[in-house]
Design brief:
The complex is a heterodimer of chains A (555) and B (326). With 555 residues, chain A is an alpha+beta fold. Chain A folds into three domains: 80 residues; 136 residues; 197 residues, MetI-like (MetI-like fold). In chain A, the strands form three sheets. In chain A, strands 6, 7, 8, 9, 10 and 11 form a six-stranded antiparallel sheet that branches. Chain A has a five-stranded antiparallel sheet with strand order 4-3-2-1-5. Chain A is flat and about 90 Å long. In chain A, 29% of the residues are buried. Chain B has 326 residues and is an alpha/beta fold. Chain B has a single domain, classed as P-loop containing nucleotide triphosphate hydrolases (Rossmann fold). Chain B is 32% helix and 21% strand. In chain B, a hairpin with a 2-residue loop joins strand 5 and strand 6. The longest helix of chain B has 14 residues. The termini of chain B are close together. The chains are: A alpha+beta (555), B alpha/beta (326). The interface between A and B is medium-sized, with 24 and 34 residues. The structure holds adenosine-5'-triphosphate (ATP) and magnesium ion. Adenosine-5'-triphosphate (ATP) binds next to strand 3 and helix 4 of chain B.
Chain lengths: 555, 326
């Protein structure tokens, strides 16, 4: 019998079927996803944990530890417990504690071996007092108010009195802030403007004496403003004195007592008396405080509102600057320039611009925008100003520097989307008697719109997360004013500003109290990511609406 | 395929002479299937004048002389005249001295095998070939006696006088309304009333009004393929062009959509001058008054559609229309 021909049912060789390559691509995806999930998971977990109110633990120590500590127990919040590998000792577990009371202990954090813990309890009357400068853990003793007898903590009227005092102090501090920032600030700005006007008059007059009537009017106005300022300053002093009038006394774990003025207290909480709902409420309160308040104590406490706002404004200016510029460049490159050596070189240069270290852009921005452009603007328009106006780092220059850095992204994305507009549509428009420019403007750009927005999204994401170049073109650790506010001209492009990315860097590496700053780092990172994602979602929403508007129907 | 088997479903018109110029094709009686060769009235030109096929003329380095039926040589009012027009893509010559005239308010079909230069000829009329750098031309074309290939001609205003419909429908990413009035807006028309009126008229002309009148401001890209193609026709007729060019307008459509578009083209005759390229000979027979057969960049034969299909004078034409080509 002749041997049968090779059976067609033979399995396809593994390599030919491509099975291994499918696995390979799957593995690539898994690795990428794992990295994203781990990184994001860590940031989200740690960032949210920063807002979660911990309970105050009374930790009874073992006898050996009691001797070393010189106290029978510790009172602290247990932040986490972790394994520590000490050489020769094997695995040890230790607790990371927030003891607060930096004024007494020199540091607000410490470690404790888990072996040295005899027992843990949560006494209900332990309070956490968040002060402007540091955090206190202890028990309340008494409240002294001016013109009233001190109230002991055990007395029935204590709690309402405390609440009332603290609320009054908070209201007063808001008043002080408004007085100092807005009213006194405006006043100072007006005095400054008068001084500049005076200088201008003197300069215009040259050698001749300036117009005496005008000078006199300026001097008179200045004097008026000056006396108004003194009135307001006195008002502020009075308010501040009132802030110091009431004092709160508390006792810490080892029995020492201390009094603080009510104006120092941010809030008082009883974490051990809170149920789950109460803690959840506190969690959201903390979160809101974080995004809406100003930072305190060298940025390690309080909120980050100015940084959040600064980042947002910078990203908006950046997108406004980068999109038209990138789109125009891409239109020229794709539609008008003759494909050839020059265009190819330009394209390679643009693509490689993305590989230039961002700090180089910062240096360029400093030289070109700040000193070059800003300096010229100052010479031309602000010759009498005392300090540089645009000739120093500011939000405009920072945004433009980042726009320059991200323009390749927009150019590449726009070019791709222009190239994707079919020849048929272009010819259709030309055949209707449109010029090339009309075709681009009326047919090609609308069709390429979603792709252009994609480029903008990428540029925004890249720009918002950038730190290095910003440090030298206008970002500061602490900015007194916001780039957008209620004083004319509302948008202050020359102002220095705070930025979340720089804030994170500052907290993590330049903070005087890195332990206290640690949760803030994660929380700020989470917020930055949330901001970028939100802005991107906004852009994606617009893009999808555009797409839907011109949805391609099925044939 | 032998001619007798050729499943020609086309409605071919009975007599070449009766309907050559009056364009009242639909009511002439159809001829029977497979009778193309049997009814020959005149012998091929080639046997008479000694002119062989296109291939022979190329082999003998002779200039090929197109056969233009006498019906078309009459002094009809011509909209488009092509005068000894040649076109080169770089060194390759795509059109060889084409001379033909398109009479007013008639539908003229261009047929011929793939690559014979039909699209090239069509796209030369509105100078879309200008977009290709390597293109050179000799000879000229005249649109209503105004030269097309002339340094003084403004291409953009020339194109405004010509409508074009492409093989693949190409609606713009705009609303249906904006698509139709696109040409008008380019001419600077801003009056809402005029735009609306023209939009309705054009959509009616393109037999699309009933289907879209309630959704004029929806995206044109949401229409079906056949509707999109009719929209493109509406866009092309909106400016009442002097000539309408169509390059295989039905080749991407299903039979029902094709039938609708064909009906539409048929209804355009009498009010529009149409030059249409088609691969489908039944279609050419159904929609056109006159047919030009091209081969290897040359115009071979040009005459009334009935004559071209029923009684061609050139053997090449005969071979092509009977499907014996190649
Ligand atoms: N852009 C171009 N560059 C170079 N040669 C071209 C170009 N376009 C067309 N040609 C050539 O010109 C000749 C005529 O092409 P054309 O597109 O006019 O043919 P056609 O008759 O429309 O064919 P089909 O029926 O397949 O559409 C072909 O040989 C083709 O290869
Ligand atoms: Mg073609």
């Amino acid at each position: 019998m002749p041997s049968p021909p090779p059976s067609p049912q033979n399995r396809t060789p593994l390599l030919a079927s491509g099975e291994p390559f499918v696995w390979l691509t799957g593995m690539g995806l898994v690795v990428g996803l794992a990295m994203v999930v781990v990184l994001l998971g860590l940031i989200v977990y740690k960032g949210l944990e920063a807002f979660w109110p911990h309970r105050v633990a009374r930790i009874e120590l073992t006898t050996s530890a009691q001797e070393r500590e010189g106290a029978p127990f510790l009172v602290a919040m247990v932040i986490e417990s972790r394994h520590k590998k000490a050489p020769g000792e094997g695995d040890r577990e230790e607790l990371y504690l927030q003891t607060g009371n930096k004024d007494f202990f020199g540091s607000g954090f410490r470690y404790l071996d888990a072996d040295e813990v005899a027992s843990i309890s949560y006494p209900p009357d332990e309070v956490v007092i968040e002060q402007i400068e540091y955090l206190t853990i202890g028990t309340l003793v008494s409240l002294q108010r001016p013109g009233a007898a001190p109230i002991e903590a055990e007395a029935p009227g204590f709690l309402p009195a405390l609440k009332e005092t603290l609320a009054a102090a908070r209201a007063r501090s808001a008043e002080i802030e408004h007085l100092e920032k807005v009213r006194i600030g405006d006043n100072a700005a007006r005095i400054q403007a008068l001084r500049i006007e005076r200088k201008r008059l003197e300069r215009v007059a040259g050698d001749a004496p300036p117009d005496p009537a005008a000078i006199a009017s300026i001097d008179e106005q200045t004097a008026e403003l000056q006396s108004a300022f003194e009135g307001m300053a006195a008002e502020a002093r009075a308010l501040r004195a009132e802030q110091d009038a009431s004092t709160l006394t508390y006792r810490i774990a080892d029995g020492r007592e201390k009094s603080i003025v009510a104006g120092q207290v941010v809030h008082v909480t009883w974490p051990n008396q809170m149920g789950f709902a109460g803690r959840l409420g506190q969690f959201f309160k903390n979160m809101w405080a974080f995004v809406s308040e100003n930072p305190r104590e060298a940025n390690t406490a309080g909120g980050i509102f100015p940084a959040l706002f600064g980042t947002f404004v910078m990203t908006v200016i950046l997108s406004i600057a980068v999109t038209p510029f990138g789109v125009i460049a891409a239109i020229y490159l794709r539609e008008y320039a003759k494909e050839g050596l020059v265009v190819r070189t330009v394209r390679i240069a643009i693509n490689n611009l993305a590989g230039v270290p961002s700090i180089v852009f910062g240096v360029f921005g400093l030289g070109f925008f700040v000193y070059g452009l800003g300096g010229s603007i100052d010479r031309l328009f602000y010759p009498d100003s005392e300090g540089p106006v645009f000739g120093t780092g500011g939000i405009l220059w920072a945004s433009l520097t980042l726009a320059l850095m991200t323009v390749p992204v927009v150019i590449v994305a726009t070019e791709e989307s222009l190239a994707a507009v079919s020849r048929g549509v272009r010819e259709g428009s030309l055949a209707c008697g449109a010029s090339k420019w009309q075709t681009i403007q009326r047919v090609v750009l609308p069709a390429a719109g979603p792709g252009i927005i994609t480029g903008m999204i990428l540029a925004m994401a890249r720009g918002a997360g950038e730190v290095a170049p910003l440090m030298i073109v206008g970002v500061v650790k602490w900015a007194e004013t916001l780039p957008v506010d209620t004083t004319a001209p509302f948008l202050h492009l020359d102002r220095k500003f705070m930025h979340l990315g720089f804030h994170i860097f500052d907290l993590a590496f330049q903070s005087p109290d890195s332990e206290a700053a640690r949760p803030m780092v994660f929380a700020s990172t989470l917020l930055l990511i949330t901001l970028v994602v939100t802005m991107n979602l906004g852009a994606i929403f617009i893009r999808e609406r555009l797409r839907r508007k011109y949805a391609t129907g099925a044939f | 395929m032998s001619p007798t088997e050729t499943p020609r479903k086309a409605v071919l018109h009975a007599s070449a002479s009766s309907s050559a110029g009056d364009g009242n094709g639909p009511d002439t009686k159809p001829i029977a299937r497979g009778s193309l060769l049997a009814d020959r009235e005149t012998p091929f030109v080639s046997t008479e004048s000694g002119q062989g096929s296109v291939i022979d003329s190329i082999a003998e380095h002779r200039r090929f002389q197109a056969v233009v039926h006498p019906e078309l040589a009459h002094d009809l009012p011509h909209v488009l005249r092509v005068e000894d027009f040649s076109l080169y893509y770089g060194a390759a010559q795509a059109l060889h001295g084409v001379t033909m005239a398109v009479p007013q308010h008639k539908v003229v079909a261009l047929i011929g095998p793939s690559g014979c230069g039909k699209s090239t000829l069509l796209r030369s009329v509105n100078r879309l070939n200008d977009l290709i750098d390597s293109v050179r031309t000799t000879g000229n074309m005249l649109l209503n006696d105004r030269p097309i290939f002339d340094t003084k001609t403004d291409v953009i205003s020339l194109r405004k006088r010509i409508g074009m419909v492409f093989q693949k429908s190409n609606p713009f990413p705009k609303s249906i309304f904006e698509n139709v009035v696109y040409g008008l807006r380019l001419m600077g028309e801003k009056r809402r009333g005029v735009l609306q009126e023209v939009c309705e008229r054009s959509l009616r002309d393109a037999a699309l009004w009933g289907e879209v009148k309630d959704r004029l401001h929806d995206s044109a890209l949401a229409l079906s393929g056949g509707q999109q193609q009719r929209l493109c026709i509406a866009r092309a007729v909106a400016t009442r062009p002097e000539i309408l060019l169509m390059d295989e307008p039905c080749s991407a459509l299903d039979p029902i959509a094709t039938a609708k578009v064909e009906e539409l083209i048929h209804s355009l005759r009498g009010s529009y001058t149409v030059l249409i390229v088609t691969h489908n000979m039944q279609q050419a027979a159904r929609v056109s008054d006159h047919t030009a057969f091209m081969y290897l960049g040359r115009l071979v034969e040009y005459g009334p559609t009935e004559a071209i299909f029923r009684n061609p004078r050139c053997r090449d034409t005969q071979d092509y229309v009977t499907g014996r080509f190649g």
